[in-house]
Amino acid sequence: MAAARAGELGAKVILVEKNPGLGVKLLLTGGGRCNLTNKIEDPRVFVARLGGNGKFLLAALYKFGVTETLDFFHSHGLKTKVENNNRVFPASNKAAAVLAVLLQELQKYQVAIRTSSPVKKIVSQDKKIVKIVLTSGQEILANNFILATGGKSYPQTGSSGDGYKWLAQMSHSIITPRPCLTPLLVGADFIKALEGLSIIEAKLNLYFGAKKIASTSGDVIFTATGLSGPAALDLSRLIDPEAIKDLQVEVDFLPQLEQSALDKKLQQVLTGGTKQIKNSLEGLVIPKFKPILFKLSKINPDKKSNLISRQERLTLVKLLKNFKLKIKALAGFERAMITKGGADLTEIDPRTMHSKIISNLFICGELLDLAGPTGGYNLQICWSSGYLAGESAAAGLKYKL
Ligand SMILES: Cc1cc2nc3c(=O)[nH]c(=O)nc-3n(C[C@H](O)[C@H](O)[C@H](O)COP(=O)(O)OP(=O)(O)OC[C@H]3O[C@@H](n4cnc5c(N)ncnc54)[C@H](O)[C@@H]3O)c2cc1C
Hints:
401 residues; alpha+beta; three-stranded antiparallel sheet; 12 helices; binds flavin-adenine dinucleotide
């Protein structure tokens, strides 16, 4: 996006990429469907969803926000559709269609694309980048440079954190990069047995000791080691890894039913039921969860439903509404969708993405210390900041530090 916008404004642009092809990570997004944005058109609402440093993105969103992003893709023939929670996808369900638009733009503005060209180092002098040096030894000189090397997550896609290192060498401060939107690893011995269990629209509550400190909603998927799916990934964004030893996640399998309503429902199902309990509870308990439910509640699965005591029923309610698991750790960068932390935003001009430290440097995308929830927010951060960086770098202004 940055290269295309600079090219559109008449700049002579070279895009340097380590991989043999462009957009390797983009092709993986949204499970290959690319959730390209979240249809929240008011920038103030959008930045509120980012939390933390979100306000930094306000100027970029006013310039090239969700509406402009969608206009851009639509005007290039990409049809989109909006799914639940305002998530926007290509109508074709193909991330490749999003990449194709960007490639088409690059071609239109004659951006020179150098793939299989890892940058080895950036040479700067007197607060100015002089050149970049590729691993091949080739040097590239330019008036302005845009750094868009992404974070550290899914390093196999090329984002191995090089940008942080170069920025630090050029005296930029880096907020410690951490895996974010990443599965929660839990300590329970039975977790492997739940692998593959998928709950539609669950609620997760985060506890620090006895205190509830955060909640998320959405689909949850149990893995062999813990919890994944949007609700779990979003919760990881709110977790301080330093405080992890006192954290528990509580799964509410049935958030649409209050505790008392669930109890009533169970009473209706169980009283007068002559089936064994393991063969009842349809619509309330996912079959894969039943063995663990009976194990933890110490209810004999062969027991007849109408013989379930009040105490046993209340235990079932508790396990379905307050299923608590101790969080052991967050999964690492190799499983994290994004990186939290990155280039310190106080050293970047939000109106231009211009570095306040290096006179001819612009920084955009995931490299910035911004981290949105799941739902298309993170790509929007890239579209908006990239567009602005491209525009500012092309303006050829003599930026003053
Ligand atoms: C599995 C997965 C699914 C996701 N799904 C979504 C989604 O549906 N919606 C959403 O909004 N976000 C999603 N994200 C997050 C989103 O993909 C990223 O936030 C976004 O791709 C970041 O864009 P970027 O251009 O800043 O960095 P990247 O996409 O990481 O691109 C950086 C590029 O820089 C290149 N590079 C790095 N170092 C060098 C070097 N030394 N020399 C040359 N080139 C280099 C890399 O090879 C890479 O191609 C997902 C992430 C993952 C991992």
